[in-house]
Design goal:
Blueprint: H1 50-56, H2 65-76, H3 96-102, H4 117-134, H5 142-152, H6 154-160, H7 167-183, H8 192-203, H9 223-233, H10 242-251, E1 255-256, E2 266-269, E3 285-291, E4 294-297, E5 306-309, E6 315-319
Antiparallel strand pairs: 1-6, 2-3, 2-6, 3-4, 4-5
Length: 331
């Protein structure tokens, strides 16, 4: 990992592996097929590595070609000769101990060479998948968790039951997620809009709840201020308050069932549900779903933006934000 001496590959924080095709286009054993919908965008990675990223980026469901490419861009700038001051080597910046345990002969030439992208890129993908598997019981988006584990180590993610509160790791994850959103397809069927919105909201974790806060002069957010700012960052204009955001999505035909929740969906709540039946007009809170029953939330005065479990006892519904809402009017 760049800048880290803990013997792991570096990768960042926040929602994202590679099957083997060598530069000659020969698929390695066990590689998965690369679909047209799951590739890096043309011209987004160096041409000599495009086949590797598109093949090995499908190694497991914690990564995609664009995630793998964004990760190695962050690690080395795609430089196969990169060497960090702490001894990380090659395009994937493996520390010697990590490479010894995860080395891989990607091109079948009989060598496992950390300086050879045909070996290092597949090894990075496989290592990301291993980290993701080690973290399968931790709640949250599996891609962000794998990136955090790649950067800070799986034990740190297990200790904090999520992305560790390390600025380097948080920056690493959010940077890679944002870069990947521009380099190709998003994770799990997400649109680039939802990726960018979740990235933005994730970067606000730790900021104060501020009543009426939009994240501008006051620096903090209330619940709908956070969701509005997140999707505004992605080019989508939403109304300002929680009930108006729900009505907007309802009128747009974009509400989704609880069993169909996807990362980036807005989730809505009403305190009245604790004491009696609530209606959509009673909705008084909103957050952004990030998977496995958790959401990004600006909860209340005195608290900070954070990740927490869905409040199922006051849950009122959810809606999906699509690029087509971009020209909607503010309420």
């Amino acid at each position: 990992m760049k800048g880290s001496a803990i013997g792991l590959l570096v990768v960042g924080s926040g929602l994202l592996a590679v099957t083997a095709t060598s530069l000659t286009g020969n698929p390695a054993v066990g590689s998965k097929a690369t679909t047209a919908a799951n590739r890096t965008a043309p011209g987004s990675v160096p041409a000599q590595y495009e086949r590797l990223f598109n093949a090995w980026g499908n190694e497991c469901d914690a990564i995609t070609p664009s995630i793998l490419a964004a990760q190695l861009k962050q690690e080395s700038g795609f430089n196969p000769n990169a060497k960090s001051p702490v001894g990380a080597k090659g395009i994937a910046q493996f520390m010697p101990g990590t490479w010894a345990n995860n080395k891989f002969d990607g091109n079948g030439d009989g060598e496992e060479n950390v300086w050879d992208p045909e070996d290092a890129i597949p090894a990075a993908a496989k290592y990301m998948c291993k980290v993701s598997s080690d973290l399968k019981d931790i709640p949250g988006d599996k891609t962000r968790l794998a990136l955090a584990g790649y950067n800070a180590g799986p034990r740190a993610v297990q200790k904090y039951r999520g992305i560790p509160p390390y600025k380097e790791t948080e920056h690493y994850v959010s940077t890679i997620m944002a870069s990947a959103a521009k380099m190709g397809q998003a994770v799990g069927g997400q649109t680039n809009v939802t990726v960018e919105a979740v990235n933005y909201a994730s970067a606000q974790i730790g900021k104060d709840y501020v009543w009426g806060g939009n994240g501008d002069a006051d620096g903090g957010f209330d619940c709908s201020g956070l969701t509005k700012a997140a999707f505004s960052q992605a080019g989508v204009n939403l109304p300002r308050v929680a009930s108006a955001q729900y009505t907007h999505l309802e009128n747009d035909g974009s509400l989704v069932e609880k069993n169909d929740l996807q990362i980036g969906d807005l989730v809505f709540f009403s305190k009245k549900k604790r004491t009696g039946k609530a209606t959509p007009a009673d909705i008084d809170h909103v957050g952004i779903y990030i998977g496995r029953g958790h959401f990004l939330n600006a909860p209340r005065t005195g608290a900070k933006v954070r990740i927490e479990k869905i409040w199922w006892d006051t849950y009122m519904g959810a809606g999906r934000v699509y690029p087509k809402t971009e020209n909607s009017k503010e309420a």
